[in-house]
Amino acid sequence: MDDVKIPEKDGELDKLVKEKEEYLNGWKRAKADLINYQKDETKRAQEFVKIANASIIIDLIPVLDSFDLALSIAQSGGSADLTTGKGVVMIKSQLEEILKRYGVEKMDSGIGKPLDTRLQEAVGEVESEHPPGTVAEEVGRGYSLNGKVLRPAKVKIAKSV
Fold first, then answer.
1. Sheet strands (E) in the chain
2. Do residues 91 and 143 both lie within one domain?
3. Could you list the mean pLDDT of each consecutive 10-residue stretch along the chain, which spans 161 residues?
């Protein structure tokens, strides 16, 4: 124990205590920074998964459009077409349910409301009972994924008569 050097002056002891506090505070900051970094990385990984899902889902949305077209054709036909239509409805609802589990939602087309270019894409004008400049008709459904627009709704705008 003869190797241990005991500070001889109070000033030297104060200096060592101050140095110890600086090191301890630095360590605490570094630890907090690491915890924050880990949380940020977890959020980024979750965002990446959502974005990866988005590209697959964007490819599936035209399939829903095809189901809608098949249903409209089946409903205009005879009894054989109605039977086919029931099957198409079942398949379409299964696909919609799967997409819903992954965060896909149908967007409101906003008929009667002013055009919102973040949510809708105007593809034409049509005479309508709605005020000019408002959405009069939905041409293609819009979809969102976890609150972000995947595909804006394609709409026709009311024009002045």
1. 104-106, 120-127, 135-140, 143-145, 148-151, 153-159
2. no
3. 62 87 93 94 86 81 83 69 74 86 89 92 91 91 90 91 65
